[in-house]
């Protein structure tokens, strides 16, 4: 199994809503990531979890709250988002040796629209 | 900050010809480079990678070249097919305990049948 599964595929939410994006992998990877991608732009790193601990937060606003309940799951909790937060949210995972990096496997993304 | 960028935003290639997609990076500490392919509506898909102790690596129909002197990376696709049409991103990572992959701006490859 070399898949990273993201749900939902599409999400429309109001600015006062609370929603969560979910990501799951069963490759035994210990590093998991959230990226944000706007149209015609490259993915931008938001968060990195390593061994279920948050290791990188790229100065992401607090209305985005990541959570890593276990080594296979990664969530992104959303609250009080703005229309400019509309984007494709990508989850990825990779082996984390801490010494030699390896490629990240990406999910298909959640297309988020904030209205 | 560090920047990984591409020279050409769009590349049109005749089917059957070879494609070359270029990428420049500025962080001399980067030691691991990856090429990703992203089709419309999908997540990035790993194509090939190369570490800084190598200058060339070949896969199936793809070759990555790394020139550390001028901080340049290229992806060569042999016998380009319509299914190769996508946006291609180079990405860099540097060892340091954390997996922080930084993407370049992307090149759209259009294959003309």
Fold topology:
The complex is a heterodimer of chains A (115) and B (113).
Chain A: E1 4-7, E2 10-13, E3 18-25, E4 31-37, E5 44-50, E6 53-57, E7 64-70, E8 73-79, E9 87-94, E10 105-106, E11 110-114
Chain B: E1 4-5, E2 10-14, E3 19-25, E4 32-38, E5 45-51, E6 56-58, E7 62-67, E8 72-77, E9 86-93, E10 102-103, E11 107-112
Parallel strand pairs in B: 2-11
Antiparallel strand pairs in B: 1-3, 3-8, 4-5, 4-9, 6-7, 7-8, 9-10, 9-11
Structure characterization notes:
The complex is a heterodimer of chains A (about 120) and B (about 110). Chain A is mainly beta and about 120 residues long. Chain A contains no helices and 11 strands. The mean pLDDT of chain A is about 90. Chain B is mainly beta. Chain B contains no helices and 11 strands. Chain B has strands at about 5, 10-15, 20-25, 30-40, 45-50, 55-60, 60-65, 70-75, 85-95, 100-105, 105-110. Classes of the chains: A mainly beta (about 120), B mainly beta (about 110). Chains A and B meet through strand 5, strand 9 and strand 10 of A and strand 4, strand 5 and strand 10 of B.
Poorly predicted regions of chain B:
none
Oligomer: heterodimer
| Broad structural category of chain A | mainly beta
How many E strands of chain A? Answer: 11
Interface with most residues:
A-B, 29 and 25 residues
Shape of chain B: globular
Distance between the termini of chain A: 36 Å
Helix percentage of chain B: under 10%
User: Helix tally of chain B?
Assistant: 0
Largest sheet of chain B: 6 strands, mixed
Q: SSE string of chain A, helix = H, strand = E?
A: EEEEEEEEEEE
Rg of chain B computed from alpha carbons, rounded to a whole number of angstroms? 14 Å
Q: What order do the SSEs of chain B take from the amino end to the carboxyl end, as H and E? A: EEEEEEEEEEE
